[in-house]
Task: structure prediction
Amino acid sequence: MKQKTKLVTAGRPHKRPQHPVNMPVERASTILFPTYNDYLEGVKTIAYGRLGTSTHRALEEAVTALEGGLETRLAPSGLQACIVAILAFVKSGDHILMVDNVYDPTRKFCQRFLERFQVDVTYFDPLIGEDITSLIRPNTKVIFAESPGSLTFEVQDIPALAKAAHDHGAKLIIDNTWAAGYFLKPISLGADVSVQAATKYIVGHSDCLLGTITSADEETAQKIYYSQLALGTNTSADDAWLALRGLRTLGPRLERHEASGLKLAKWLSKRPEIDTVLHPAFKTCPGHALWKRDFTGSTGLFSVVLKPVPQEAIKAFFDGLSVFGMGFSWGGYESLCIHSKPENNRTATTWDKEGPLLRFHAGLEDVSDLLTDLEKGFTLMAAATKKKNQVDKG
Ligand SMILES: Cc1ncc(COP(=O)(O)O)c(C=O)c1O
Result:
C-alpha cells in the first residue's frame, strides 16, 4: 500500500459488521475480563487503562505503519516520548551522545536530570557524520539526534550515526518530528527508535499534546515498554483519538505545508532583510545534501537569519503581523512566527550569526495572505529601524 492509503486504513481493525468509520474513544482505568481465561489472555493486550485501550492500540498501529517500525508506544507529550526513549537504555555510570541542536527541553532533561543520576552527556556537532566514532566511549549507550534540528535545521547523517552506534553496542534514537514520519523513515536508515512529538503534524490542530515512540525490533521495543511502565506515563484516550483523527489527513496537509513553506522561503530568500534561509530544501541549509539523499520532501517549518536590526525593529515586525500568530509549537493549520536565540542552547558548536533568527511555520492559509502579512511586517521593521537610527544620531 502507498503511504497515503496506509494513513487512511491503518489502525481500523473493526470486527463488527456495522461500525462507525472512526474508532470510538475508549476511556478506562479498569478493564473487565468475563472469564478467568480471558483474564489470563487479556493482560497481554489490553489490561489496564494506563497501558492503553483499543483507541491507543489503533493509533499505535497506524503510527507503526507510518514509521515502518515493529511497534509504537504512546507518551503524553513529545518531550515525554524523548525521555521514555532515553531512559530505556541508560543507567547510572553510562554515557550518551546528544546532538547540539536538540530541542532545548530535551537538552534540559539531560542537564538537569540525567547528569544528577551520573549519566554523562557529551554534545556533538550535528554535522559530525562518521567522526562521531571519536566521541564514543565503552559506556556509551545512546546516540540521540534530531534531524533536522527544529530551530536551526542542520540535517544529520543517520546511516553514519547508526553504524557508529551499532559498532559499539549503542542505540540510535532519532527525533523525527520535523518530517512527521512522512518524509523521513529513520528506522529504514538504521535508527533503533524514532520518536515524534505527534503534538505537531500528526495532531495537526494545535489542540493536544502527544508523543510516539516507534521501535525497530523486539529487544528495543521491550526496553521501551519497560521504561514506559516504570515511569507510569499515561496518554489520555481522548488525545489518542484526536491524534488518530489528525493522522488520517496527514498526507494532504503535509503536502500543502510543504508547498507553502517552499513559497515563503523562496520569497524570503529574495528579501533585502534576509541574511540566510535555513530550510533543508535550500542549498544554504547545513546538511542539504543529506536531506536530498534521505528525505522525500519538506514540511512547513524553517528559519531565516536576518541581517542585524535593532530590537525595536523586531518588535515592530511582530506587532505588525496579523495572519501569522506568535507562539510556541508548530504543525497546526495556522501559520506561526517566533524570534529565537540559538546561541543560548549550544555547547559543542557556536552560533555566530549576527542577526536575529526568525522561525516560521507555514500553515494552511492562502499563501498570498501570508506574503502580504510579511510585507507589512517588513515595512514596519524598516520604519522602526529608520526611527532608531535617527534617534541614535541625535
Ligand atoms: C523537535 C521537537 N521534539 C520534541 C518536542 C516536544 O513536544 P511536546 O511539546 O509535545 O512535549 C518539540 C516541541 O516543540 C519539538 O519541536
The CA atoms of residues 91 and 335 lie 41 Å apart. The longest strand covers residues 140-146. Residues 77-79, 82, 103, 146, 150, 175, 177, 197, 199, 209, 211, 329 surround pyridoxal-5'-phosphate (CB under 6 Å).
